[in-house]
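User: Show me a protein chain along with its predicted structure.
Assistant: Here is one chain, sequence first, then C-alpha cells.
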Amino acid sequence: MELVSQHVKGIMEECKLRARDQGLKFDDETLEYIVTNRDMIELSPKVMIPTLYDYWVHDVRVLSGKGMYEAYPSNPYETVINTRPAISFYNDNNPDWLNVMIFYHVLGHIDFFQNNLFYKNTWDIDLTGQALSDKRVIAQLRSEKGKWVDYAIEFSRGIDNLVGYQKELNHTIMNGTRRQLGKTDFYFDTFLQKIKNVSHHKYLKEITRFNAGRNGNEDFFDPVVSLYPEFEELYKKEAAIKIKPELDIVDYILQYSSFLKEDENNWIKSVIQIVKNTSLYFQPQIRTKIMNEGWASYWHEYLFMRDDRICGHEVDFAKVNASVTSMPKVGLNPYALGMRLVEHIKEMEDKGCYCFDYMFLKDEIKKKNYNQSKNSGDEFILKVRENFNDFTFINTFVDQEFVARHNLFVAGKRFNSSRISWEYYIKSKKAEDYKEMIIDTLYHPPEIFVDKAFTRDGILYLNHKFENKPLKMDFIENTMMGIEYLWGGPVHLETSEPVASGKAATNYASFWDPASPKTDPNKPESVKWKRMVYVMENRKISKKEV
C-alpha cells in the first residue's frame, strides 16, 4: 500500500475544483492510496481501517475473502472511509480516465460524510488515530489477560447494534442542552392529551383555532388561561424539569454491572467502551447506504459527462457506469436506486412539483405537463443530502411518478408445480408497496431497553419493543449468555413470539430466512402474538409465557 503518484494526485485536485464549482463541500486535505486486491481483501474485514483492533473474526473473513477471490476474481474500483482527513483506496491498475470517474464518486462520498447531519457525531473524531490507540490498549490487555479479552470483545459485539445512536446524535446536535419546551408543544402534546384527556373533536377544534390565529398567535392562550387557570403553573413546572439521559443497554451495563465493578474485572469496561465507540462511528453509514451510494453515483455521472477528459472513452465509461448503476428488476442496487431518486427529486423541484397544487392534481395529463420552472433542483438536492437518511429519503420521495417512470414493481415468488420450479411475477406496481418493500430491507435493529421496574435483586430485565418483526431466535441464547457474563447475574428478555398454525406459522418461523417462501407475510390477522420471557441463568436458557 502506497500513496498515489503526483500525476494521479494532480488529477484528483482538478476533480476537487470542478466538484466544488457544482456546490459540493469538503475539506481540502485528502489521502489517496494505491492498493492491490490482496490489500483490499485484508482491509475489508476491518472496514478499511488499517489501525482497527485485531480480532479473530477478522482473520476468518480474510481467509474467506481469499477463497472467494480465487473462485470469483473481482477488481474493486475504490473504497473511501470517513476519517479526518478522508482516506480513499484505489486499485493499482486503473487508467487515468477511470480514475477521473472514480475520484468524482469518492468526492461525492466525502461531501456526504462531511455534510449529512447523521454523521455529525463523527465530524470531530480522528478515527484512524483513535483506532490505533484502541488497538494498543487491546493488545496490552491481551498480553495480560489472554483469551478473556476475545470473550469480552465477542460479548460486547453481540450487543453493539443496541447502542443509543439516536440519543448520541441528538446530544451532539443539541450540544448537550435540552430544547426549550414551548408553551404550544406543552399545551397540545401534554396538557390536552395526557392531563385533561380531551375528546378528539375538542383537540382538533383547538388545532383549527391555533391555525386560524393571527399576530403570531399571541392571543391564542387568553381563552386557555380563562378556561384552565392551572395551565400556566403546570407549564412552568414542566419547563423546569431537567431530562435525565436514558441509558442504552451497553451504558447501563457499564454503569451498574456488579461484575464489572470488581477490581479484577474493571479492564473489561475499556473493551466494551472501544466496541461501543466503534459501533457508534459506523452507525450513520449503515443507515445511509442508499443515499450515500446514490449521491456519489449521481455526481460521478454528472461531473464526468461534463469533463473534457472523457473524450475518447465514452464507450468505456458507459460500460463501467452501466455495470455500477443498472437498475435490476428483482433485487436492490443501492447505487442505481439512490442515483435515480436524486435525479427524480432534482427534476421534480425544477418544475416546482413539491407543492400542494401539484399534490392535489388528479388529472394525469395536467400532472405530466405541470411546470412552474423554479429551476431550484440543484439547491434542493443539496439540502436533501444534508438532512435525510435512507428511511426518510425513501419514505418522502418515492412516489408513483418515480415508480412509473422507471417501471418499478414488487416481485412475488411462487412455485410452479407443472414445471417444478420457482417463478417470479409482478405483485404490485403501487408506489406505497414498492416503498414498503425497500424500507423492509433497511437496517433496523430491534429496540430493546432496560425495564427498570423489573430490574432488581441482581436481575437485568430487558424488554423488546415489538414492531411486528420477531427477534432472530438463533441469536437469542448466545447473545443473552454474553450479556449474563458482562452483567454478572441472571438476564431476562421479554419479547413476542407468534402463536399460529399451518401457513401462518410457517411464514413467521422462516421470517429471517430469505430463501424460505412466504405465502403472505403481510397478513397480521393470520398470526397472533404472545409475550414470552427468556431467562438466562448460569449459562442455561429457559423461557416462559408472561
